[in-house]
């Protein structure tokens, strides 16, 4: 049995993990045992999550397919549907429609060094690929992770960040825009923080996700450091709605973000009118 991308399948919330004051991770599994075993997705794809009687919204799958059995979605409460998702408790039902969209290029980057740059709630889409790379470590080169948020309280996956920091084969960096009494780490915005780290572009592919203005400034910094547009890859999930290219909300140029993306290289984006407007 395979998932029907046009119809939601019933799933149950197995765990709720608060991440920040307005963001939580929802761990879900399909009620149908066959679908639970056969749901095949790639890092970077997304699903439409629905609350019956309320609506649906696109959310990136934050877990890797290498972590079998359960799906994870990191959701910020910013509207009607996401507010309703935040009312869910363990045992509650929701609809999951997908997997949708394209994916991070896991095969094309084999043998390359990898740089991940996330900002705030932009880390979950990157996390799916980070987990995938760490679970297939022998297929990839050096791994660097740069992550930032507005404050220490706005960092997501706090326990997992500690795990990444302790990994001997991962170069991990974290910063916040403004620290507090609990914070003894770096303070500063991600783009200048990235410049200070100055990661070499040699044999390296950079992946970035975060607020649009952060992505714009990160890309400018990467280009200053010598990264080619083809080696800078991002995801444009924020522009999506229906997930199948019908509502038109995510249309840019001749592309539909939900159907042709959400993952694009900056080489692709520079050829699409309006794609780089913040």
Q: What is the number of helical segments per DSSP (H or I, 4+ residues)?
A: 8
The N- to C-terminal Cα distance equals 41 Å
Task: Give the CATH architecture of the largest domain.
Answer: 3-Layer(aba) Sandwich
**CATH level 4 superfamily of the largest domain:** Nucleotide-binding domain of ferredoxin-NADP reductase (FNR) module
Write the element-wise H/E pattern from the N-terminal end onward: EEHEEEHEEHEHEEHEHEEEHEH
* CATH class descriptor name of the largest domain: Alpha Beta
Mean pLDDT across residues: 93
Main sheet: strands, sense, barrel: 7 strands, mixed
Q: Could you tell me the strand content as a percent range?
A: 25-35%
Strand order of the largest sheet: 10-9-8-7-11-12-15
**Which spans have pLDDT < 50 for at least 5 consecutive residues?**
none
CATH domain fold name of the largest domain:
Rossmann fold
Number of domains: 2
Number of strands: 15
> What is the CA-atom radius of gyration, in angstroms?
18 Å
Please identify the structural class as seen in this structure: alpha/beta
**What does the overall shape look like?**
globular
In a few lines, what is going on in this structure?
With 278 residues, the chain is of the alpha/beta class. It has helices spanning 33-38, 80-85, 123-135, 158-166, 190-197, 212-224, 257-260, 266-269; strands at residues 9-20, 23-30, 46-51, 55-60, 71-76, 93-100, 113-119, 143-149, 170-176, 186-187, 204-209, 232-235, 251-252, 255-256, 263-265. The chain folds into two domains: 9-100, Beta Barrel (Elongation Factor Tu (Ef-tu), domain 3); 113-235, Rossmann fold, CATH 3.40.50.80.
């Amino acid at each position: 049995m395979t998932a029907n991308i046009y119809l939601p399948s019933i799933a149950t919330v197995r765990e709720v993990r608060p991440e920040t004051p307005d963001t939580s991770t929802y761990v879900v599994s399909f009620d149908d045992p066959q679908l639970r075993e056969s749901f095949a997705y790639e890092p970077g794809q997304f699903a439409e999550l629905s609350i019956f009687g309320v609506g649906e919204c696109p959310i990136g799958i934050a877990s890797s397919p290498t972590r079998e059995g359960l799906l994870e979605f990191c959701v910020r409460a910013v509207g009607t549907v996401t507010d309703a998702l935040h009312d869910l408790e363990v045992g509650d039902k929701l609809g999951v429609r997908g997997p949708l969209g394209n994916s991070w290029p896991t095969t094309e980057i084999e043998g390359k060094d990898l740089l991940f740059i996330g900002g705030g709630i932009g880390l979950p889409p990157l996390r799916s690929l980070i987990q995938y790379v760490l679970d297939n470590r022998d297929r990839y080169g050096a791994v660097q992770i740069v992550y930032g948020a507005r404050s220490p309280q706005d960092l997501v996956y706090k326990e997992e960040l500690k795990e990444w920091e302790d990994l001997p084969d991962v170069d991990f960096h974290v910063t916040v825009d403004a620290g507090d009494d609990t914070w003894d780490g770096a303070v500063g915005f991600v783009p200048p923080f990235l410049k200070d780290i100055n990661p070499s572009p040699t044999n390296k592919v950079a992946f970035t996700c975060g607020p649009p203005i952060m992505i714009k400034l990160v890309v400018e910094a990467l280009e200053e450091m010598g990264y080619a547009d083809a080696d800078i890859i991002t995801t444009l999930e924020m522009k999506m709605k229906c997930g199948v290219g019908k509502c038109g909300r995510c249309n840019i140029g001749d592309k539909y973000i939900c159907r042709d993306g959400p993952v694009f290289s900056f080489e692709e984006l520079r050829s699409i009118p309006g794609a780089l407007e913040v």
